[in-house]
Every structure is written in structure tokens, then in C-alpha cells.
Design goal:
- The protein is mainly beta.
- The chain has two domains: about 50-175, CalX-beta domain (Immunoglobulin-like, Sandwich); about 210-320, Jelly Rolls (Sandwich), CATH 2.60.120.
- It is about 5% helix and about 40% strand.
- The chain contains one helix and 21 strands.
- It has a six-stranded mixed sheet, with no helix packed on it. A five-stranded mixed sheet has the order 2-11-9-4-7, with no helix packed on it.
- Strand 5 and strand 6 form a beta hairpin.
- The protein is globular.
- The termini are far apart.
- Keywords: Signal.
Length: about 325
Amino acid sequence: MAFKRLLILIIVAIGFGPTASLAQTAPNPQPELKTIQPVVEQPTGVEALPLVKWDAIDVTVVEGQDVWLALRTDTPIETTSGIKIDIQLYTSNASNGADINDDFESEITLPQTNQSRNNQITGYITGTSQVLYIQLRTIPDTIIEPNEIFFVDVIISNGTIESRGNRATITIAKDEKFYPAFANWQGCQDVNEPANNTAAGSGILAISGGACTSDFVGENAGTSSAVDYYRLSSATNGNLSLRLKNTTPDQHNFNLYLYKYNPSTTRYDLVAQSTNDNQVDDLINLAIVANTSNDNGLYLAAAYWATSTGDKTPTYELTATMQ
């Protein structure tokens, strides 16, 4: 009887033991797999770079006259440094290619800051002006020759150039009498009435850029609107000579004022004036400081139509030079 009980225990051990062992070593059930999509921030819109436009890309100038080019943007400029523009001169190997330093000077001038470099220079379109002016000089000679051309190329680092491209073509013509449609480029820009009747709408006056010829058409003497404003600045400290030439002295009297921008108050302060009563030219000589990134060296000239004794159109010439 004892033997039978022992045999039953052995059979039970043999029958159930492996099952228990397998149960202990069997792998756990695999968890349910779920596909998890990554969360990706979708762009709400591509931020467009500022678009820069030429005033003109085909300019003709009479030999010996200055060339003015302008690059503008209507896009608000968010960066403090502005839109960076690299400018370089090129000419052509063709027969109509102008010769550098024979037909045109290698010097490029940026009149807003009065910076000059040979062959290439870097300028900026800032939120203050929304425009960059480029001034070039052609060289007169006595040689009878056909029209000649040279080029101004620009590269814009943090903006885009308009569809007409990054190259402006300058044509130098020999004689003005054969080309009556030529623009009369002069030492100022953006001075049409009534845009320059306020400081905010002031034109640009180039230092050592030649005479700026203008008038007071549509204005009334002795009133707050009878004033033309011009911004000017220099890249270096120096002595500014500002002259207002009265070209209608028989009937009109003009006055000249000079203001300096104050970054602390964001206003212009009067720093000099010339108010001759006998209708002669007005002159201001003043030591000025170089312009800086906060416009601490930005100046504003104001030509004022003080009195009138006739109905002739009041005209004048305004020039700025450094000594």
C-alpha cells in the first residue's frame, strides 16, 4: 500500500512539474502597439524678405555730370542695422565700354552718410529713410566719341531685389544739346513740393554734391508751409559750409536754419541760423560731428521763404560742402 502511494506521487510530479516550469518561464504577453504621430509645428506663413527696388536701372547722363541712383523699400525694416547692400562698379570690354578713371571716377559716394570708397562699398537701407542713395561722377574731356556705358551691381544680403535685376546701366553721353530728355541730376533728391515741407518728408542734400536747385511753388511767404527741409550728414567730423543762394533777390527774401537731431528726445534742435534782411545769400559755417548708428550726427537744413514783394516764382540754390 505504501508502494502504491509512492508511485502515485511520482506520476503526479512527472505530470504537473513541467507545466509549472513552463508557466514560470513563458514570456509576458506583448503590450498593444500604438502608432504615435510626432507633433510638428506647422508654419503659419513664410516671412518674406524686404523687397528692394531701383528708382531707375537705365540712366543717361551728360559727360561731366554726377549720376544719382536710389534703392528703396516699402517693407518695414525690423533689424536695427537695416538692409545690407554691397555695391560694385563694372565696365564692359566692348567698344562702348566706359574707362574707369578716364570716363567715370572709381569713387562711389553714399551721400546720406558721406562715405566714399573706390570701386566697391557697403551701404544700408534703414527704417529712418527707407532709401539708399548712390552718387557717381563722370569725367569730362575734349575727345569726340560715341556714348559709353558702365554698370553698378548690388548684392542684398537680407532682402530681395526687384524683378528687373541687380544691375543698373549708366550711359555717358557727350553733349546735352542732342539729348534734351536727360534728367537734371543735382545735389539733392526727393525735394518735390509739398513732400519736403515737413521734417518727416525732408529730401536728402549731399555734402559736396553740387548745387540743389529748388523753389517755393504753391507756397505762401511768411507761413509755416513756406519752408523746404533737407537731411544731411557726414561720415567724419568736420566744418560744414551751408549756403542758400537767393536766385530771385529782387522780389523775395529767404532765411536759412540748421537743426541737429537729438536721439534722447527724438527731436531736432536749432544749432545755427542765417537771417539776412537785405535779400542776399545766407551762409552757415558750423563744426559738425560724424553720423552714428543712432543718428546723433543727423542734421536738417531748412530754407525759409520769409517775405515777398512780387509775384515772381521764388527760386534758390542750396549747397553743402565740408572744409
